[in-house]
Amino acid sequence: MTISRPSRSHDAGFSLAEMLVATAIAAFGLAGVAALIGTGIQLQGNARASTIGVNLAVAELERLRALPSTSAERTNGGSLVANAANHFAVRGQTTMRWVIADGPACGPVSWAGPAAPVECSKSITVVAIPPNPLAARSTVTGLLWR
Does residue 98 belong to any structural domain of this protein? Predict the structure, then answer.
């Protein structure tokens, strides 16, 4: 009685070439995921800087509203593209710029009687420029009274 042995040429398994191809595909996929993680971190940082900019712009607008109407910072003028005297400030690393112009509404002061002085609103635009050049600039527009 003879016992036959199965042939080893039909053994199941992977060859070295198949393993190299599978490893290369997995490495390529992992490199793509790593790049996406890096991009996500960068976008999160940009979003954070933009959110801080909006908050600073709103705070600056409220600060300007609280100033007396005769304050130099509330006079008409300013620039959103360059630092203009009395119309810019640096808060931390963020540059704030604003423009003030005569607003849409004028009228007599109601409490002053028939000889009331005319008082006009002023429109104001505040822009917050973050230190990160990839982050968006934040712009807030509002009105100043008195």
Answer: yes
Number of domains in the chain: 1
Length of the chain: 146
The DSSP element (H or E) to which 30 belongs, if any, is helix 16-66
Q: Identify whether 8 is part of a domain.
A: no
- Report yes or no on 2 lying in a domain: no
Alpha-carbon gap, residue 130 to 70, rounded angstroms: 29
What is the domain extent for residue 63? 15-144
pLDDT per residue as tens digits for the range 4-29:
666 655 667 778 889 999 999 999 99
pTM metric for this prediction: 0.70
Contact 103, 143 (CB under 8 A): yes
Say if 44 falls within a structural domain: yes
Q: Is 80 left (phi over 0), alpha (psi -120 to 50) or beta?
A: alpha
Name 123's Cβ contacts closer than 8 Å, sequence gap at least 6: 100, 101, 102, 103, 104, 141, 142, 143, 144
Classified as helix, coil or strand, 140 is strand
